[in-house]
Amino acid sequence: MFLDVGCGINKKPGSIGIDRNPSSKANVIVDLDRFPYPFRDSAFAGLQAVHVIEHLSNVIRTMEEFHRLVRSGGEVHIVTPHYTDFSSFCDPTHRWHLNSFSLRYFGPDNAGYGYYSEARFEESSVRVKLLAFWRWLGFEWLVNRSLRFRRFWEYYLCYVIRGKVIEWRLRVVKRDKDST
After folding, report:
1. Residues 145, 55, 108, 38: what is their CA dihedral angle, to the nearest 10 degrees?
2. Average pLDDT over residues 5-19
3. How far is residue 136 from each of residues 1, 8, 79, 129, 142, measured CA to CA in Å?
4. Degrees, nearest 5: CA angle 147-162-121
5. Nearest to 160 by CA among 84, 105, 64, 70
6. Are the CB atoms for 95 and 138 separated by under 8 Å?
7. What is the pLDDT of residues 50-68, one digit of tens each?
8. Cα Rg of the chain, angstroms
9. Most buried pick, 11, 26, 111, 113, via CB within 10 A?
10. pLDDT per residue as tens digits for the range 118-170
11. HEC letters along the chain
């Protein structure tokens, strides 16, 4: 089974959709800021949250809930505006403005701050989409080609060569309770 969090009117075919809006195509109406969601642990092979996480009240708690819901090795697909994109700030319902390194917090490269959560994910891929002009000039390819260049872009260039969207594909990592 696959879970589509915040599915809206574009629910992924074959998935179970959850949303807070009764006008959506959700199978289950859920306040996405209230945990736990009404599903058992590891109930899903995968999950997607497309343009959702920036609206929720607590990114860390939301990621922990995603971790709880998806089985070990399952994929979590998250899409959100890059913080330099106009759409990140023009929507008053956006609470969070993320960059392409924001979810590293849940992996081994967490800069020492991962102790606030035990949820662990492994980045399968991170893809940044840039505004069309920069994409046509080949900058999107450069940003996504090398982690080193993406870091340089985030530090020094992203306010000139602005990002549009970030897409993460994360693999759920769960510790075997028998081995602890």
Report:
1. -130
2. 97
3. 38, 31, 22, 11, 12
4. 40
5. 84
6. no
7. 999 999 999 999 999 999 9
8. 17
9. 26
10. 999 999 999 999 999 999 999 999 999 999 999 999 999 999 999 999 999 99
11. CEEEECCCCCCCCCCEEEECCCCCCCCEECCCCCCCCCCCCCCEEEEEEECCHHHCCCHHHHHHHHHHHEEEEEEEEEEEEECCCHHHHHCCCCCCCECCCHHHHHCCCCCCCHHHCCCEEEEEEEEEEECHHHHHCCHHHHHHHCHHHHHHHHHHHCCCCCEEEEEEEEEEECCCHHHC
Place of tokens 């971790």: 67
pTM of the shown model: 0.92
Return the closest-CA partner of residue 143 out of 123, 124, 166. 166
